[in-house]
Amino acid sequence: MHMMNYDEALSYIESIEKFGIDLGLDRMKELMRRLGDPQDKLRYVHVAGTNGKGSTVAFISNILMAAGYKTGIYISPSLDRFTKRIQVDGKEIDKEVLAQLTQKVKDAADSMAEDGLSVPTEFEQVNAIAFLYYEHEKCDFVVLEVGLGGRMDSTNVIKVPEVAVIASISFDHMQYLGNTLPEIAGEKAGIMKEGGDVVVYDQAPEVMEVFKKVADERGCRLYVSGKPKDDKAVKYDLTGQDFIFELDNSKASGNRILYNDSPYVGNEIDSDNKSDTFSDTFSNSGNKVSESYHIRLLGEYQIKNASLAITAALILQSKGFDQITDRAIKEGLSNTCWEGRFELLQDNPKVIVDGAHNPDGIKVLVSSLKRLFPDKKIVFIAGVLADKDYKSMMAQIAPIGKIFHTITPPNSRALSAGDLADTFKELGADAVSHESVEEALDAALHNALEDDVICAFGSLYYIGEVRKLILKEI
C-alpha cells in the first residue's frame, strides 16, 4: 500500500471540496465513527465568534501551556504553512505524521464514498486529522477554533467542552450564517452544549438575548466576561498594552457574572455558591476583582479578547483545574504573540500587518492606527475578497490613507487590484494597483520616508506573503 508523503498529503487536502452540499454534522460524525471517535477522548475549550477568535485561542492556549497542561491548538487557515493549523504546545504537527494521518482519514473518507455516502469536506477531513493527532499526543486540553459559524461546524462534533467561549459577533460569511446579528449569534450559540459552561463578551442586547435563550434551553451556565476597566488600556505603545481587568460578582451589580439562572445549576452547585468560589479563587477581596495584566498584542480590541481568555481561565480554575494559577494567567497572556494581527514587522519605515477583513475589523484597525499614530496619514497595501462588504470597509479607512497600493489576494473569490483601486479613487483617495504582493510592497517601501507607517490589511490570504517578504529582507 502506498503511503503518502507531505506534498501528496497537501495536494490531496487541497483537492477536496471545501463545502458540502448539506451543512449538517452527519458526515463528520460518520467519518469520526470510522476513525474510532478520537475526539471523545479529549478535553476542550471551544471558541467561536466573528472577530477575535484566533487571538482568543492564542491567549487561552498560552495560559494553559503556562499552567503546564499539554495543549493542542486548532486554528483555521494559517497565514502561510498548512502545519500551523494543527499544533501541540506551540509546535506544529510534524510533516511525516501529517502525511500518515491524512492517509488514514482519506481511507475512511474513501470507504464512505464506496458505501454511497457523501464525501467529507476539506474542513471536515482536516479537522479529523487534527483530532487523531491530539489523541495520539495525549493532550490535556485542546483549544478548538470554530471554522465557520458554530452549530454546523465540523468542530461541533465534540461532546460538552470544559468551557465554550464566544468572542464578538458581527457580519461576515452572511451567505452561510444569516443576515441579522441574532441569526448569526444563533449559529455561534450552536456550540453551547447541554449543561456546559459558556462565557461570552457582553455585546448588543439582541445578541445577548439569543445567548441567554439558548443557554436556558440547554441548561448551560452563561457567564459574561470580565472587562478592561473603562474599556481601555492604561498604557499603550508599540511594545504592547497594560490594562486592568475587572470582574464584579456582587448581586447588586447589574453585570453579575452568572447571566442566567439555569435550572440545572441548582442540582450541581448552588449558583450563589458558584459565583463566590469563582471570585474567591481569583482574589480574596470578596465579590470584586481587579487585577492588572500586560499583553504584547496591539490593537484596542485585544484587551477584550484577553479579558475573555482570563474569564475562561477563571472558570476552568473554579472547576478544579488548579494548575491555572494567577501567575499562569499573567504569564500566558504576556507570552502570547499572534501573527498577522496588528503585528509590527519592522521599524523605519514601520511596517504593520493586520488581518482585518470585515467592517468591524476595519473600524478597530482605524482606531488603533489613530491611537498609535495620531494625525499621521498611513501608506496602505490593500487586498480583499469580493464577497466581503468592501465598499463600506474602504470608506472607513480611506480618510487616513496617504496612498493605497492595491493587490489581488491569491484566492478565487478575490476582488481584482484594479477594481479595488477604483473603489478608493471613487472615495477620493490616491490608489495604484499592482500585479503582485511583492510589487506593491516594493513600491510602498521604495517611496516611503523614514518616519512613514506602512500597513497591509484586507485579507489573511495575502498577509502571510507580506510577512515572508519582510522578515526575509531584514
From TrEMBL:
Start and end residues of each Mur ligase central domain: 47-313
Gene Ontology cellular-component terms listed: cytoplasm
PANTHER family: DIHYDROFOLATE SYNTHETASE-RELATED (PTHR11136:SF0), FOLYLPOLYGLUTAMATE SYNTHASE-RELATED (PTHR11136)
Protein EC: 6.3.2.17
Protein name per the record: tetrahydrofolate synthase
PROSITE patterns on file: FOLYLPOLYGLU_SYNT_1 (PS01011), FOLYLPOLYGLU_SYNT_2 (PS01012)
Gene3D superfamilies named in the record: Mur ligase, C-terminal domain (3.90.190.20), Mur-like, catalytic domain (3.40.1190.10)
Reactions performed catalytically: (6S)-5,6,7,8-tetrahydrofolyl-(gamma-L-Glu)(n) + L-glutamate + ATP = (6S)-5,6,7,8-tetrahydrofolyl-(gamma-L-Glu)(n+1) + ADP + phosphate + H(+)
Pfam families per record: Mur_ligase_C (PF02875), Mur_ligase_M (PF08245)
Family the UniProt entry places it in: Belongs to the folylpolyglutamate synthase family.
Superkingdom classification of source: Bacteria
